[in-house]
Amino acid sequence: MRDFMAITKALSDPNRVRILLALRQGELCVCQITELFNFAPSTVSKHLSILHHAHLITSQKSERWVYYRLAEKKLAPVAVREALDWVHKSLGKTDEAAADAKKLKRILRTDLAVICAGQKC
Amino acid sequence: MRDFMAITKALSDPNRVRILLALRQGELCVCQITELFNFAPSTVSKHLSILHHAHLITSQKSERWVYYRLAEKKLAPVAVREALDWVHKSLGKTDEAAADAKKLKRILRTDLAVICAGQKC
DNA sequence: CATTCGTTTCGTCGTTTGACGAAATATAAT
DNA sequence: ATTATATTTCGTCAAACGACGAAACGAATG
Fold first, then answer.
1. Which of A26, A54, A102, B14 could bridge A10 with an S-S bond, Cβ 3.0-4.6 Å?
2. How many Cβ atoms sit within 10 Å of the Cβ of residue A69?
3. Which chain B residues are within 8 Å of A94, Cβ to Cβ?
4. Per-domain residue ranges for chain A?
5. Does domain B2-118 correspond to CATH entry 2.40.30.10?
6. Within its chain, how far is the Cα of B118 from the centroid?
7. What is the distance between the alpha carbons of residues B96 and B85, in angstroms, rounded to a whole number?
8. Average pLDDT, stretch B69-74?
C-alpha cells in the first residue's frame, strides 16, 4: 500500500506526468527538463525526487549532469510497470504530449552547456 | 489529460483507494462505508463524489439510500478500466484490503437501518 | 586547492486537501 | 402535510503541496 500510494501521489501532479511522457524520448538531465517547462531548477529537482522515490524513474550521474530515465521494464516492480504503461497509453498521443515532445526535440538538438548557460543555475 | 488527472487525483488518497477495494464486494451505500472507516458521513460523501467525478464509480438511488458501485468494465473509458484493474491487481491481496473486507462482511450481514441508527446522521 | 557549475536541500509563501460539524436538500414514512 | 432520515453542501481548520530563491553540496576544472 505504501509503495502504491507513492506512485499515485507521484502521478497526481500534471507536471510530473508530463515529465514521464517527456522521458519516453530517452534520458534527460535536470536542466533539460527545466528548459522544457520553464520552472526553477529546484522545482524540477523536487519533482524528479518524488518520481524517483516512487521508483518510476532511475538516475545516473555522468560527467557534470545527473540523467534521469524511465524505470526499466524488466527490473521495475509490477505496479510501476503498469503505471508507466497506463500513463503512456492514456496520454502518449495527446496534443499536450506532442507539444512537449516537439519542444523537447529542439532542446535535445542544443548543446547542454548552452542550455545551462541560459539558466544561471 | 483533464480526465486522466481526475483519476490520478482520486487515487492519490489512501482512503479513496480503500473504498475502491471495498466496492469489489458489490454496491455499498454511504452509511455502510461510513461504518467501515469510522469517518463522518460528510467526509465519505466527499470521497465518493471525487471518485464519481473521475468516473471510477457510479451511483444509483434505491429506497432511502444511495448506492455506489465500481464503474462497469464494458461502459467505462479505457483509462478508468485500466486504473481499476491496476488498483485491484496491486492491492487486492494485501493484508489491509483483507482486514477491510473482513469488517465489511460483518457490516453487510447487519440490517441497514441498524447501521444508520448507530450513526446519528 | 580554490573555483565553477549542475544539482539538491532548506525555508517561505500562497493554494489545495482532507477532516469535521452544522445546515440544507430530498425522499420515505407517518 | 408533517416528520424522519440518508445524503450532500457549506464553512472552517490544520496539514500537505507546489512554486520560488538562497544557500549548501559535490564532482569536475583550472
1. A54
2. 14
3. 1
4. 2-114
5. no
6. 20
7. 18
8. 96
Nearest protein residue to nucleotide D10 (CA to C1' distance) is B42
Protein CA B34 to sugar C1' D1 (Å): 32
Nucleotide nearest to B63 (CA to C1'): C28
* Residue B120: pLDDT over 60: no
- Which fold is adopted by the domain A2-114? Arc Repressor Mutant, subunit A (1.10.10)
Burial class (CB in 10 A: 0-12, 13-18, 19+), A39: middle
A11 contacts B12? CB cut-off 8 A: yes
- Summarize pLDDT for B89-99 with one digit per residue, the tens: 999 999 999 99
C1' of nucleotide C10: residue with nearest CA: A42
Would you call A86 an interface residue with chain B, using a CB distance cutoff of 8 Å?
Answer: yes
How many alpha carbons lie under 13 Å from residue B85 in its C-beta half-sphere? 14
Q: How confident is the model at residue A120 (pLDDT cuts 50, 70, 90)?
A: low
Whether CB of A66 is under 7 Å from strand C: the answer is: yes
- What is the value of ipTM here, to two decimals? 0.93
